[in-house]
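It would be a great kindness if you could assist me with a short task in structural biology. Thank you for your consideration; the sequence and its tokens are set out here.
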Amino acid sequence: MPAKSKAQQKAAGAALSAKRGETARKDLVGASKEMFDSMTEAELEDLASTPHDGLPDRVEDEE
């Protein structure tokens, strides 16, 4: 599943870094904290590795 925005890609990268023990979990905030708790390392890697060319900075919530 590719990232839908640069912000989502960045949050996934932060969560992935914490999952791997490269950064402290306590440093995570917002979406990256939720991603850490709810996604596997493989899912996070898939989101974080999405090429960001052509992605919008942010995507508004669809409700």
In short: The mean pLDDT is 90. The radius of gyration is 11 Å. Residues 6-48 form one domain. The helical segments are 6-19, 31-38, 41-48.
